[in-house]
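Tutorial handout. Part one gives the primary structure; part two gives the three-dimensional structure as tokens.
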Amino acid sequence: MRDDKKQGKKPNKDLAVKYVNPKSSTLNPKQQSRRDFLEGTGTAVVAGAGISALGLPKAQAQTPPTGSRTAINVTVNGTPHSVDVDDRWTLAELLRDELDLTGTKIGCNRSECGACTVLMDGQPIYSCSQLAVWADGANIRTVEGLARMGSSLQCSKPS
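Part two.
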């Protein structure tokens, strides 16, 4: 309770909030001058700067939610790997980011260009559209594995 009311004084009417009629207000764009507008926005900018200078704690960056993880076993180019993968990872992300096999490219990320094609159990697949958890127990051959089969790249399937 304010001290004025305790002492029996009447509150100052200049400090009271007044009702503003929108029709007679100077906030009407047709009746407001440029000077009034600039003074109002300048006051808002200064007040905003003052509030930020109060030393309030800054908002902390939120960490994105992580999906569940699954341990999978894959054989890539003849080498067995046991990898703990996020359930949202694609096979292309697993090959490039976790196993450092960068020959598999992510071109369009929607199975149109074929840059991510690998052989899974002898069948060509687009690794950008296959989840890594689906490859559990599979035999994967990438372009690096095809290059190791011979001195030069060869057709993966005869015509």
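Part three, for discussion. The longest helix spans residues 34-52. DSSP finds four helices and five strands in the chain.
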